[in-house]
Amino acid sequence: MDMENLSPIKRALLELREMKAKLDTLEQAAFEPIAITGIGLRFPGGASDLRSFWQLLAEGQDAIIETPPERWDVEAYYDPDPAAPGKMYARGGGFLLGIDQFDPYFFGISPREAHTMDPQQRLLLEVSWEALENAGYAPDRLKGSQTGVYVGLTGIGDYGRLLISDLAQIEAYMATGNGDSVAAGRLAYTLGLHGPAVVVDTACSSSLLSVHLACQSLRNQEIDLALAGGVNVVLSPEGSVALSKMQALSPDSRCKTFDAAADGYVRGEGCGMIVLKRLSDARAAGDTILALIRGSAVNQDGRSSGLTAPNGPAQAAVIRQALANAHVSPAKVHYVETHGTGTPLGDPIEVQALMAVYGKERPADRPLVIGSVKTNIGHLEGAAGIAGLIKTVLALRHGTIPPHLHFHTPNPHIAWESSPVVVGTAAMPWPQDAPKFAGLSSFGFSGTNAHMILEAAPATDLRIAQMERPLHLLALSAKDETALQQLSNRYRQTLAESNVTLADICYTANTGRTHMNRRLALVAGSAAELVEKLATSAAGRSAPGVARGEVSDAQDKDVVFLFTGQGSQAVGMGRELYETQPVFRDALDECDRRLRPYLDHSLIALLYSGDPNLGALLDETQYTQPALFAVEYALAQLWIAWGVRPAAVLGHSVGEVVAACVAGVFSLGDALALIAQRARLMQALPKDGMMAAVFAHEARLTAALAAYSDQVSIAAVNGPQHIVISGSQAAVEAVLAELAQEGIRTQRLNVSHAFHSPLMAPMLDPFERAARAVDFHTPQIPLISNLTGEMLGVG
């Protein structure tokens, strides 16, 4: 629109409309939902992944155990009297077993450094790696990316105290191994991430606050991806002794949240990390979306009745703000994963705050369901919020709210009769007639409160392949043979027990995993066949389609696409790909459509009709070159669609035109027009030429051709002793006869013309005119010149 010709009023209206559009875009970005695309976890009860954690929740398992003897001697520290000096009155907790087990070599850490590392740092490395793999992101490919790390961690320093009995024991790695800030920094260092690396300590709300901060950074365009969550490990008795003196712990080591018997919480440990991405970016990338974070808010209790006492009005305020930020009305939220520690003071205040917000205008037949994961695994303190978040994500995905434990007699200090709230003591299905929304609270005894609104993942249109490929490749790798065997066994179990799609599991294993030096590759046409081959490999037997090996350098190597010249054509080339691979078929069909103005016959008919008369035309230059171009171009598109992208391209003869097109030098339409003109001009030349391969050094050929320089030339140097010559038939035959006398092996090529020889001179001027009609661009992929070896298109 020409602004100069508009009246001042119309111009002002247009500018206002454009300004409003920009403001709307900014507002949408500020409140864009954040997609959870991956989750990693270690929780009590043997929960090490989403499947095992959901089983624990769905079955209502109680994961609390007596304190393991490797932590501390329970009998030495136990006393039922809360006032007993140096004693604790609680015997159990939600503990992780095998917390001392760690593979430092996997992360490039020496055993000496690993010894001084707080297990919380070790857990963060392992769980974050698994979260990225769960999201389908190969961790090593994030190097240099704007990925942020946000970790909730309470700074109690159990491990550091265990390591030091006197100052002489302090080692060089002590500071980095136990510094809270290094927990996030080490993760960013290991993965090579360039976004913020932040450790948050607001006590029990730390991990949910870390997720809140990650969402803000994503919406502010500061980062493109985030790892967020928290970790908590209970290694020494001092913290439990201190909490016993506060009488914050439950004597029977159970969180009896909302029950009349609620008498404190039980300490738990674990680690949870989630992968976050803006919803628009996740959709564009085709990521699996586990759930959405619609909005969140954080505030502070301020001056309440005591430093650690909860503040009901502040809790209600943070819930209102989270709902407002999420643009979700309270009545739409069906479930709230509460902070729910099971303390006599905290439970009534929390329910009152929930009802002050979620209870308003709530239909009587839609009570708010509340629960707390702390009744299953204990209070994970700095990691409590992320544990509740992961539980809620699973509840949304399964459409079921898992049972809340240890609720028998409702707390009499909660007005249950007047509150539209229920505690889900049995599994409850999510209503099917409305969008699934859930709330999530995490309140720190520091006074910092966080609340978050989650929504079930949006429905996605699964792209089903029109034709399934006949074979699939599964590529597995590890850093040693034992780990590779364990990985192989896990894949075999998953394939045998789960209803998984072979194409999906192979794609993720091949492209969403870091490939290490010990490798196993298997080719199979079905899940059952793959299971059989995995079993064969595990037994140490060889089989077709099974390959094992080791590479000295597990770093990814650059892939270069090489496109061949004339002489490689064959009737039916690419038929199976055309019949089974939509990407290949679409690309070939597009080339056929664009070539119809230049050819008398359909390219598809020449290749696949089975008509011998049409097939014979494929050896005619005017059809050979367009057909080769089309098949090579379609192959390149297929490899790229499979995630194999070239670091550079080069080609010979026809192949050099394909390479230039793939590199972006000219459009597909221009490339096809150029190759069709090239083929037509060459076809029109006299067929009095000849080409031959000579297995000798280039210097010997140069000497042999000296007497025929105006009739024969070197057409290609394919290797140190593999040269192709081209020229007039009589001259080429004379050269071959001379070479034969010296015992030099030669081979005549089946071609129609003497390509790349002086006999091509008559077509050069008209071909130059055709090339001048093409719109050329700088290569977007480095293009290696066939003639000079120069790399084109790089800065």
Q: How would you describe the shape?
A: elongated
> Biggest sheet, in brief?
11 strands, mixed
As a percent range, the share of helical residues equals 25-40%
Strand pairing plus helix content: what structural class? alpha+beta
Low-confidence residue ranges: none
Strands of the widest sheet, in order across it, are: 5-4-6-7-1-8-15-14-9-10-12
Find the count of extended strands (DSSP E, 2+ residues).
26
Strand content: 15-25%
What is the residue-mean pLDDT, rounded to a whole number? 91
Number of helices: 28
Rg, Å, rounded: 34 Å
What are the SSEs and their pairings?
Layout: H1 8-30, E1 34-42, H2 50-58, E2 65-66, H3 74-77, E3 92-93, H4 111-116, H5 119-135, E4 147-152, H6 158-163, H7 174-178, H8 180-191, E5 197-200, H9 206-219, E6 225-232, H10 238-245, E7 270-278, H11 279-285, E8 291-300, H12 312-326, E9 333-337, H13 346-358, E10 368-371, H14 374-377, H15 384-398, E11 400-401, E12 421-423, E13 428-429, E14 437-443, E15 448-456, E16 472-478, H16 481-497, H17 502-511, E17 518-524, H18 527-538, E18 546-550, E19 560-563, H19 575-580, H20 582-595, H21 603-608, H22 612-616, H23 621-641, E20 648-651, H24 654-663, H25 668-683, E21 689-694, H26 698-705, E22 712-719, E23 722-728, H27 729-741, E24 746-748, H28 764-772, E25 783-784, E26 791-792
Parallel strand pairs: 4-5, 4-6, 9-10, 9-14, 10-12, 19-20
Antiparallel strand pairs: 1-7, 1-8, 2-3, 6-7, 8-15, 11-13, 14-15, 16-17, 17-18, 21-23, 21-24, 22-23, 25-26
Helix pairs in contact: 2-15, 5-8, 9-15, 12-13, 16-18, 20-23, 23-24, 23-25, 25-28
